[in-house]
Amino acid sequence: MASLKDLRNRISSVKSTQKITKAMQMVAAAKLRRAQDSAQAARPYAQKMAQVMANLANGIVAGPETPRLLTGTGKSDTVLLLVLSADRGLCGGFNTNIARLARERVAALIGEGKNVKIITVGKKGFDALKRLHRERIVSAMELKDAASPAALAARVGEEVRKLFDAGGFDVCELISSEFVSVISQKPKARTLIPAREAIDPDAPAPDLNGAIYEYEPDEEGILTALLPRYVDTVVLSALLENAAGEMGARMAAMDNATRNAGELIDKLNLQFNRTRQAKITTELTEIISGAEAV
Amino acid sequence: MADKLQFDLVSPEARVFSGAVDMVVVPGTEGDFGVLPDHAPFMATIRTGAIEVHSDGSVSRIFIHGGFAEVTPQGLTILAEETAELATLDAADIRAKLEAARLRAKDAGDDGEREQAEAEIAKLEAMQAAMELKH
After folding, report:
1. Which of A17, A88, A128, B104 lies deepest, with the highest CB count within 10 Å?
2. Which CATH class name applies to B5-87?
3. What is the count of structural domains for chain A?
4. Of the candidates B73, B56, B63, B57, which has an alpha carbon nearest to the alpha carbon of residue B17?
5. Does B40 touch chain A (CB under 8 A)?
6. Burial A47-64 (b: 16+ CB within 10 A, else e)
7. Would you call A262 exposed, middle or buried from its count of C-beta atoms within 10 A (0-12, 13-18, 19+)?
8. Chain B residues in contact with A42 (beta carbon < 8 A)
9. Is residue A102 included in any domain, yes or no?
10. Nearest Cα to Cα of residue A84 among A1, A13, A190
11. How many residue pairs from chains A and B have C-beta atoms closer than 8 A?
């Protein structure tokens, strides 16, 4: 049986933990709003970019001049998985879910006899994958390495393109978390390169009233200039969505933790009172039996 | 002018400008071009520099870096990686940044770093040129 002092210590320790989780929840809630706002602000750019890319890609006839970022290498022997996760934990199953999907994809791709390479962005993704797939990870970045999500997206994009140009892989898949709602994030994988497969063929084309586009420089010139930027944009919106998801997950996790701590405190308080009463009763009995004996 | 041109300037961070204007002059990679209402569909990549937005007799200049312009019957959309209102920029600040970037380019340890610094220099120089044009 725990002594009264032990119980008192225990209660105060749980109480301070509860204070911390409560604070973390509130911080995450504030950050979530900001993350959602910036994800929202980036949306018009990404949408417009996707629209223009779809427009260009559908209009172009693939030839030897066509940038390979669009059409791919014609093979799919080596697959690069770009795994986006968070830098920090304590956000429920957020990182675990991303890592699990990544592991499943690796296993599936290896099962199909393909080579797999991995680039991780975010410390937790690297931590989760290094044990099983250390030799496949070609590069690991952390979110805090760059000053802003845009700068990070540009670095990630550059790294991916450099590897692609060097013939390092044929297909690139992006694994990140989809922001379904504040309390629900779903990890998903999608193709990033070749861009032709990534582009939504149903993206609405602008209504030109029968006119046709003029291009300056020509279509291929524009594609060459635009494709790298397109890759960056997709990475950036995935990063922003991830950031919002991380905060949402952390908020939910910390809300749970705060509630659990509250329950624990109630239980401990009950135990504390019982013990105190039992002690008083024992003392009383002792006094009474002592008095009777006299 | 009765007709107005719907003009949107979008950067990854935000929708910088959206509204009806009279004319926009855009620095294309193959030369500057002006877009008036009812321009033919057109798509062009952009050189780092300043766009001029003409609206009701006044002209505002916005610095843009990297991106492209698309003209549809609905209007003109410019996607730019970076934008800055020229009126809010500080010449001394740019000069200081330019200095720092040049120093970085000189001391760069590897090619990647140098390339980055040189890109920064080119951007800042364009920014400076755009500002001087105004004065």
Report:
1. A128
2. mainly beta
3. 1
4. B63
5. yes
6. ebbbbbbbbbbeebeeee
7. middle
8. 12-13
9. yes
10. A190
11. 79
pLDDT tier at B106 (50, 70, 90 boundaries)? confident
Please enumerate in sequence order all residues whose Cβ is within 8 A of that of B71, keeping only pairs 6 or more positions apart, or say none. Answer: B35, B39, B40, B41, B42, B43, B77
CA distance A82 to A189: 9
Please, what is the Cα angle at A43 between A39 and A46, to 5 degrees?
A: 120
CB-CB contact of A80 with A168 (8 Å):
yes
Q: Flag whether residue B47 sits within 8 Å of chain A, measured between CB atoms.
A: no
* Token couple for B126: 């364009």
| Cβ–Cβ gap A45/B12 under 8 Å | yes
Residue A8 inside a domain? The answer is no
One-letter identity of residue B63: F
User: What is the pLDDT averaged over residues A271-288?
Assistant: 94
Task: Give contacts of A216 with chain B, Cβ < 8 Å.
Answer: 28-30, 42-45
Q: What is the CATH number of the domain that holds A160?
A: 3.40.1380.10
Entry pTM: 0.83
Q: Please indicate whether, in this complex, the C-beta atoms of A222 and B45 are within 8 angstroms of each other.
A: yes
Q: Mutual orientation of helices A4-59 and A219-293 as an angle, nearest 10°?
A: 170
> Is the pLDDT confidence value at A253 over 90?
yes
List residues of A whose CB lies inside 8 A of any B CB.
Answer: 38, 41-42, 44-46, 48-49, 52, 56, 150, 206-209, 211-217, 221-222, 225-226, 229, 233, 236
- Structural domain for A120, as ranges: 22-203+213-253
Residue of B45, B66, B73 lying closest to A209 (CB–CB) = B73
The whole-angstrom distance between residue A293's C-alpha and the CA centroid of its chain comes to 73
Assigned token pair, A151: 């700068």
Residue A28: is its pLDDT beyond 50? yes
- Average pLDDT taken over every residue of chain A: 87
Q: State whether A45 and B79 contact (CB < 8 Å).
A: yes
The one catalytic residue among A28, A60, A86, A91: A91
* Per-residue pLDDT at A111 exceeds 80: yes
Domain spans in chain B, listed from the N-terminal domain onward? 5-87, 90-134
How far apart (Å, rounded) are the C-alpha atoms in residues A109 and B18?
45
Question: Does the distance separating the beta carbons of B43 and A222 come in below 8 Å?
Answer: yes
How many other C-beta atoms can be found within 10 angstroms of the C-beta atom of residue A294?
Answer: 4
- Give the best residue of B30, B46, B76, B79 to mutate against chain A (max A CB count within 10 A): B79
For the question of residue A172 being annotated catalytic, the response is no
What residues in B contact A225, CB-CB < 8 Å? Answer: 29, 45, 68
